[in-house]
Amino acid sequence: MEEVARKLSAEGIQKRVLSAGRGDAPTFPDGTKVVFHYRTSLLDGTVLDDSRTMGGRSKPMELILGKKFKLPVWEHVVTTMREGEIAEFTCDTKHTALYPLVSQSLRNISVGKDPLEGQRHCCGIAQIHSHHSLGHQDLDSLQAHSQPLVFTLELLQVLPPGSFRLDTWAMTDEEKLEAVPQMHEEGNVLYKKGDIAAAAEKYHNAIACLKNMQMKERPGDEGWIRLDHMITPLLLNYCQCKLLQGQYYEVLDHCSSILFKYEDNVKAYYKRGKAHAAVWNEVEARADFTKVAELDPSLASSVARELRALEERIREKQKEEKSRYKNLFASTPTAASSVSPAAR
Q1: What is the CATH number of the domain that holds 226?
Q2: DSSP string for 118-132
Q3: What is the number of domains present in the chain?
Q4: Does one domain contain both 239 and 289?
Q5: Which ranges does the record mark as transmembrane (predicted)?
Q6: How far is C-alpha 202 from the geometric centre of its chain's CA atoms?
Q7: Which of 133, 159, 185 marks a domain boundary?
Q8: Domain of 76: which CATH number?
Q9: Is residue 339 one of the residues assigned to a domain?
Q10: Which H or E element spans position 90?
Q11: pLDDT tens figures, 43-55
């Protein structure tokens, strides 16, 4: 333990064990998955991030060692810990310069945003030395004035290579391309079983893999287009799930984005038409269904069925509204009858 502390100290890292772990010190070959909670603080005790409360929920950090995480010091210090151990690491500025970018990504993830939002077209070092805002005042301040940080880690689990399935973010591009067809098929199986939420998640994860790769390509280039052609059918499957879940405006957004690029995509028109119909956009729904019949005459009967259903829903809605207004006026006293006898 003292030897580890001396080595860390020589590297500008001070370790203080707050709670001893259990068992023997594990080995950490490349490919090991470590799961840990973290709290990041300034030297004055100001807390920047806490995985137990970030985004309003408790979600531990997961790292695959050897995957070149943006903050190498985390990979380094966690390998000095035992499972169950809680330790505090005070790290010199040379280890913390990239923390603002890492924190921005983690905060994005915690609220369901793209982890790379705000980091496109600019490498990490360039951003650190630029005036680019990260969208958080504390991170902007830290980016402008790098300083030592205190990381309090609790090592929850150490999983050896091969004992777990890689998360998509930890995959290489080659691994992602191999995983996407499998996730697509798993989504199809779940959809057929009626597990719509799980199917949507599979499609979403497959799309995320391809989107991550697509961000490395120039829009319109051959590689970008090839990936986009892989994304489109997955996105249409995802939209089908969202239709069944009643997430109509999300379907409108995704289908419109597809049609902006591919004006003859029949499925996108069809699903967008159903979403428009569901939110009472009658004119837009009719236009989309008409386009479906024009592009694929074999779907004319399906389109006619959807239009009949739309007309029936509109008639029912008008009938309900008419009845509601009739009852409203029937229950409202007339001006004459509302005047008291004394006032007459």
Answers
A1: 1.25.40.10
A2: T-TTS-HHHHHTS--
A3: 2
A4: yes
A5: none
A6: 13
A7: 159
A8: 3.10.50.40
A9: no
A10: strand 86-91
A11: 999 999 999 998 8
Show the tokens assigned to 286: 């009719």
Q: How far is CA 56 from CA 22, 96, 110, 208, 338, in A?
A: 30, 25, 8, 23, 54
pLDDT at 135 over 90: no
At 67 the pLDDT is 81
User: Are residue 199 and residue 228 in the same domain, yes or no?
Assistant: yes
89 Cβ contact partners less than 8 Å away, ≥ 6 residues apart: 8, 13, 14, 15, 16, 73, 77, 150, 151, 152, 153
Whether residue 124 has pLDDT greater than 50: no
Q: Please indicate, yes or no, whether residues 86 and 189 belong to a single structural domain of this protein.
A: no
Residues ≥6 apart with Cβ < 8 Å to 301: none
Assess contact for 155 and 254: CB atoms under 8 A: no
State the pLDDT confidence band at 110, using cuts at 50, 70 and 90: confident
DSSP conformational letter for 332: S
Q: Which residue, among 65, 3, 77, 72, has the nearest Cα to 28 in the 3D structure?
A: 65
pLDDT higher than threshold 60 for residue 127: no
Q: Residue 317 domain-assigned?
A: yes
3-state class of 133 per DSSP? coil
Looking up tokens 């029949």 gives 266
Long-range pairs for 305-311: beta carbons < 8 A, 24 or more residues apart? 306/273, 306/274, 306/277, 309/277, 310/277, 310/282, 310/285, 310/286
Last residue within a domain, chosen from 126, 159, 192: 159
Structure tokens at 194: 């009626």
Whether residue 102 is found in the same domain as residue 216: no
| DSSP conformational letter for 164 | S
Please give the single-letter amino acid code of residue 344. R
What the block records as the tokens of 135 is 């969208």
* Residue 113 pLDDT class (50, 70, 90 cuts): low
Per-residue pLDDT, 336: 45
Q: Which domain holds residue 313?
A: 168-329
The structure tokens listed for 101 are 């970018």
pTM of the entire predicted model: 0.56
